[in-house]
Automatic annotation (TrEMBL):
Residues 423-437 have a biased composition (Low complexity). GO terms for molecular function: metal ion binding; ubiquitin binding. InterPro entries: DA1-like, DA1-like_dom, Znf_LIM. It comes from Lactuca saligna (Willowleaf lettuce). This is LIM zinc-binding domain-containing protein.
Length: 496
């Protein structure tokens, strides 16, 4: 849910006026007109030769200059009389409507009148003699020009401007945030959240509240409808496709964003260097794999077929991205990487390969088309499955086996994006990986992706992968990796 905090959205009143005579001290004239008004109610509000001040609605108060007449009195006398008349009418109106706008007598004899403050609207400015008003926008004297009064400050009409666009506010309704005024449209543009997928204002729900979805890592805000309208989602980073950026279709129901595409590994040959570097990482922690385990990159359907043909093992469907095989199978590996044609990959060449069982592990399979760090995390996980089988770990429950494999995947990612921080998970005297010196400088996007993949592992909600990782990681942080593995070999569970 979203709402605008500390922001008031009101229809704000302004005072419009021409001029008022500065001779407000004529108390005797004021009392005469007051007596006339109280005695002669039928003639109230009607003055020969001119128009009295008018109080219009709750939105604005208008003061107009008196009209010229044939009266031969001096201008000064007429202005004094008009001012007395205006004050008297205002007071009489205020006496009849205690909560209305009008002039009321003050407690100080030196103050003839003060403005009444309404409980809801911002207060009207106090009466200031004409010629002493300074514009709050340009800081110049307003003089006898038209003016606006807002929250105790006077403005030339052209100087009362929106804080966002700096253009004058001419509408009767506007929005207020603190002491800053905005056009209603500008205020909505500033405060109302926009969908980062369709770039439209996120609509309100049935209760009139702004409801949206937000990715827990990337903070991508989007309309709830995009979860069900077939909007493409990156199979790597999980961000939704925006209307102005097209994702690449991998041809097997998956889409890849352009940032993940930058470091994507597309065929088995390109992945060999990464695979050997992860084997070196294991060897650097005194976890050497004695047998050469084949590794193949495959399409989604080939991976699913291989999982179906595997008799043993626990798989995190439907998000399985890799598998460690122990059965003899024939799989189609990607021999030649495809090229980008339009917004999809074309020209892929596959090769059917028979995997013969020569040890406890037949091969390791991983999905093609994923970024280097995600592919490496998958291979590190599956290599741990292979290491456990080759070292004689038998009949482990899913929480233990998947949990310790996720720990190795997390440790490898941590070494890649934070290579200068030694791993706290290993108690081995030779904990540094020989692959560390081979790493190149990664882009900011790739490092951010690595942090996201680590976030996925640590926040996985599944009992085996998520709960197992958290239990395994706590044990490794307390006892070290070697002692934890020894305890698993003896008891089949994590040390407590």
């Amino acid at each position: 849910m979203s709402s605008s905090g500390n922001v008031t959205h009101l229809s704000q009143p302004c005072i419009y006026g021409d001029f008022v005579s500065p001779h407000a001290e004529r108390k005797s004239g004021f009392m005469k007109w007051l007596n006339k008004l109280l005695k002669g109610g039928s003639s109230r509000g009607s003055v020969s030769g001119g128009n009295p001040p008018q109080f219009i609605g709750d939105e604005s108060m208008v003061l107009r200059a008196p009209v010229r007449s044939l009266d031969k009195r001096t201008r000064s006398d007429k202005e004094k009389e008009e001012l007395d008349r205006a004050i008297a009418l205002s007071l009489a109106e205020g006496l009849r409507k205690p909560n209305g706008y009008g002039w009321q007598p003050g407690n100080d004899n030196n103050d003839l009148a003060k403005s009444h403050q309404d409980d809801f609207h911002p207060s009207y400015p106090p009466y200031v003699p004409m010629g002493y008003r300074v514009c709050g926008g340009c800081n110049h004297d307003i003089g006898y020009s038209n003016y606006l009064g807002f929250m105790g400050t006077f403005f030339h009409p052209k100087c009362f401007c929106c804080r966002a666009c700096s253009y004058p506010i001419t509408e009767h309704e506007f929005s207020l945030s603190g002491k800053d005024a905005y056009h209603k449209s500008c205020f909505k543009e500033l405060t109302h959240p926009k969908c980062e997928v369709c770039f439209q204002f996120i609509p309100t729900n049935g209760a009139g509240l702004i409801e949206y979805r937000c990715h827990p890592f990337w903070s991508q805000k989007y309309c709830p409808a995009h979860e069900h309208d077939n909007t493409a989602r990156c199979c790597s980073c999980e961000r939704l496709e925006c209307v102005n950026v097209r994702y690449i279709s991998l041809g097997d129901g998956r889409s890849l964003c352009l940032e993940c595409m930058e470091s994507a590994i597309m065929d088995t040959g390109d992945c060999q260097l990464l695979y050997h570097s992860i084997r070196d990482y294991y060897e650097g922690m005194n976890m050497r794999l004695d047998q050469q385990i084949p590794m193949l990159l495959v399409e989604r359907h080939a991976l699913n077929d291989a999982i179906v043909g595997e008799k043993n093992g626990f798989h995190h469907l439907p998000e399985t991205r890799g598998v460690c095989l122990s059965e003899e199978q024939t799989v189609a590996s990607i021999l030649k990487r495809p090229r980008v044609g339009g917004h999809r990959l074309v020209g892929m060449r596959t090769h059917s390969q028979k995997l013969t069982r020569r040890c406890e592990v037949t091969a390791i399979l991983a999905l093609y088309g994923l970024p280097r760090l995600l592919t490496g995390a998958i291979l590190a996980h599956e290599l741990m499955h292979g290491w456990l089988r080759l070292k004689g770990f038998r009949n482990l429950i899913p929480e233990v086996e998947e949990g310790i494999c996720q720990v190795l995947s997390y440790m490898w990612l941590e070494s890649e994006i934070m290579p200068n921080i030694p791993s706290s998970s290993s108690s081995s005297s030779s904990s540094s990986s020989s692959s560390t010196s081979k790493k190149g400088v990664k882009s900011r996007n790739e490092n951010k992706l690595g942090e996201f993949f680590m976030h996925q592992i640590s926040h996985d909600a599944s009992p085996a992968y998520g709960g197992g990782f958290r239990a395994a990681n706590a044990a490794v942080n307390t006892y070290g990796l070697r002692r934890t593995l020894d305890h698993i070999r003896l008891t089949g569970n994590f040390p407590v």
